[in-house]
Each structure stands twice: as structure tokens, then as C-alpha cells.
Design goal:
Elements lengths: L6 E3 L6 E6 L2 E6 L6 E6 L23 H15 L17 E4 L21 E4 L6 E5 L3 E9 L2 E9 L1 H6 L1 H13 L7 E4 L12 H11 L4 E2 L2 E2 L1 H11 L7 E3 L13 H4 L5 E7 L1
Parallel strand pairs: 5-6, 10-13
Antiparallel strand pairs: 1-2, 2-3, 3-4, 4-14, 6-9, 7-14, 8-9, 8-10, 11-12
Bound molecules: zinc ion.
Amino acid sequence: MCSVNNSEADPGGGGFHREKQGRLTLWRFDQAPSGINVFFTTRMGGISGAPHDSLNLGFQVGDSPESVMENRRLLSGTLGLDPARLTSPRQRHTAVVANLEQSSQVGGGSISEESPFDPCDGVLTDLSAAPILLHFADCVPVVLAAASPDGPVVAVLHAGRQGLVRGILKNGAQMMIDHYQVEAGSISAAIGPHIGSCCYEVGGMIAAEFAERFGTQAVNGAFLDLAQASTADLVAMGLESRNIHHLEICTSCDPDFYSYRRDGVTGRHGAIAWIE
Ligand SMILES: [Zn+2]
């Protein structure tokens, strides 16, 4: 597939663009307030071999740490960032969101899976030049971005089924509102690539519980719609539907992305966001 100016509009109808930057192929969220950058990586352009090929950004999946470090350097270099300043929590499917408010915490988790934020499945900050990187292979990456009275604020959240049920998105939005005096209606949300309702079949009990928690529109038979569930919680927190953007890519259908359900042992693509 060819593209003009290395840029393609998203399949979901607004809010994202696919960009070729150097050897990497990235999806940019272009509805964040000015001064906030948000990207979702694909698996192309890195150095890891199979089954983690090739831009694996996660330490916890059996890839060599040297390859992960080189991939993170590649990503950081491409985006003009310092890899030593990547803050990357150890994710455990919790609803815990950390507030990255001290300069001394910047860079936690940048060189190994050891992180000062553990357990933690979301990071929020108003610090500049402090990129937050989380990893995914089917779970939903959600980035919240807003202008507070004191400047931009951004959060990157790991919302798998368990984290969603436990309230990771509500916690992230609430912290943004409480700590930074952000108006809920001014928050922009980017729902990145994740396993779609086309491919996410679960047992009947889990589907029933999910429907009870998020509404019947979040379940289609035994298939869960994680984007609908995410949207339901964000709207419940006061976000405007028009400010919630969904990059309608299924990680299990699209070979550009890692999928745990499809491949088992595999790598992790990333969601990265930072304030300039
Ligand atoms: Zn699918």
C-alpha cells in the first residue's frame, strides 16, 4: 500500500495518522492539546529476532535486554527523545496509576523492568521532556491529554480486561481532575490499537460480568468490545464522546502489531506520550 507524504489517515475516521519516521512506522494521535505528543508504535523497524520481531519494547517477554534497549534507543532517537528519560512502569493488570511529579523519578524502568512504580498500570505527569512508555500485545492503550490551569497534563494507561474492570481508566481520569484541576470535558482520549471485538472471545460468565459492569453494548455474544467498555468508563467520568478517539485497529487481525492471543510468545508494541 502506497501513501502520500508517508502519511495515511486512520481506519477509524479521524484523530490519527500513520507516519513513516526513519525506519519506524508509527501512528500519531493528532487531537492532543498543543505541546503534548502521542504515538503508538507498530512492530516494524526494530532489531529483535523472531518471535519478538522486531520493535519489541518490553523487557518481560523473553527477548534479550540488549535488543529491547536498542529498540528503545531507536524509538527515542526517531522521536528526538532521551532514552534515559523514558519512564516505564512494570505492568501487572492493576488499576494503580502513579503520578510522576518528581524529577528524580523520571527514567524509572528505562533500562530494565525494575521500576519505582510497581505495581502500576498507568502514569500521569505534567513534567516536560518526561516521556511515558507502556507496552501492549492486545490490551488497550489509552492516553489522556488535557490543558490544566498550569499547563499540559498527560496520562498513559494500560487497560486490559482486568484493569478495565478494576477501574484503571476511571482512576487515571480522576487523578487528572483531582491533582491538576483539569475539566473532565476538556480531556482528549486516544484509544490505541488493541484486540477487537472480532477476535476477543471469552467464556459466558466473563461476558455476563463484563456486560453488567460496562453495559450490553460492550459485549457481542461471547465477544468483548474493550473500546466500548473504555468509552463507557471515560464518559462516566465526564469526558465528552466527541473527545474520545478510537484507532480502530485490531492487534489480532493486523500483523503490524503484536498479539498475545494470536501468537503466545511475542513482543510488545508501545504507547508513548510526552509534554514538550
Ligand atoms: Zn480482530
